[in-house]
């Protein structure tokens, strides 16, 4: 088994002990709550800018 590291949490600067460097368990729990919120994304039709021209080779006869 790997020894635990003792370090300051990079998010809240609290003293933490873990196998790997990263957020403390309290911060991990709060980050999981934030990441679990689903949002609905609407699809928008592509509307090219006026300066966009079609590929010349594709329009060639």
Description:
The mean pLDDT is 81. The protein starts with a strand and ends with a helix. It has a two-stranded antiparallel ribbon with strand order 1-2. It is 25% helix and 13% strand. A hairpin with a 6-residue loop joins strand 1 (5-8) and strand 2. With 61 residues, it is an alpha+beta fold. It is elongated and about 65 Å long. It has a domain at 1-37. The protein has two helices and two strands.
Blueprint (SSEs and pairs):
Elements: E1 5-8, E2 15-18, H1 25-35, H2 56-59
Antiparallel strand pairs: 1-2
Brief rundown of the structure:
This protein is α+β, with helices and mostly antiparallel strands and 61 residues long.
Comma- or semicolon-separated keywords:
two-stranded antiparallel ribbon, single chain, alpha+beta, 13% strand, 25% helix, 61 residues
Radius of gyration over all CA atoms, rounded:
25 Å
- Helix count equals 2
Uncertain segments are none
Strands ordered across the widest β-sheet: 1-2
Query: Mind describing the biggest β-sheet?
Result: 2 strands, antiparallel
